[in-house]
Amino acid sequence: MKYILPFLLSLVIPGLGQIIVKKVLKGIFMVALLALAFLLLEGFYLYVTAGVILIWSLVDLFFIIKNRDGNAAALKGIGFTFILLFLIIPVFFVIGYSTISSGLGISENVYFNEKNTINEMDEITGGLERYYSRNNSYPEDYIKFASAKPVRKNWITDYWGNEYKYILIEKDKYQIISSGEDMKFDTDDDIIKGNF
């Protein structure tokens, strides 16, 4: 751990490893240079400058430890650091990103499913009204009506994937119902449209 800690600290903030191995002025200079880069630069130039300072810090630590404790100690420290940098940290970032993005996707889908279903039901009621104006009645078979034109094929199910319930109350009255998020009809989250 004695050889690994300076490399790990320099991986987090370049220059801290130099302070640990008692090269204080050089370490403070690297930390100050990094802070100055964050204050003055942005975008691509900031990333390049920070990367150069990081590489400089790690290479400098390698030579400090190599001169002080030998080649094996320096290789052990920098080897572990590169394994951490190129294998372990990216794996955690990928796992974290996928977990967060899938969690956000679920919450967004719940909101957008309801909103999209309401919009689609408005389109369906418009289509039913056009059907009524041509035929003087609403369709008796909703599936046949929705399947009649390719544009309407997605009108069979809501955005949760549940079939709409179509109820023809009278010749001139109807209801179209989505079971909502819970996928059960006759509950509080049902979405109901029509001219009833």
Automatic annotation (TrEMBL):
<protein>
    <recommendedName>
        <fullName>Type II secretion system protein GspG C-terminal domain-containing protein</fullName>
    </recommendedName>
</protein>
<dbReference type="InterPro" id="IPR045584">
    <property type="entry name" value="Pilin-like"/>
</dbReference>
<keyword id="KW-0812">Transmembrane</keyword>
<feature type="transmembrane region" description="Helical">
    <location>
        <begin position="77"/>
        <end position="97"/>
    </location>
</feature>
<keyword id="KW-1133">Transmembrane helix</keyword>
<feature type="transmembrane region" description="Helical">
    <location>
        <begin position="27"/>
        <end position="56"/>
    </location>
</feature>
<keyword id="KW-0472">Membrane</keyword>
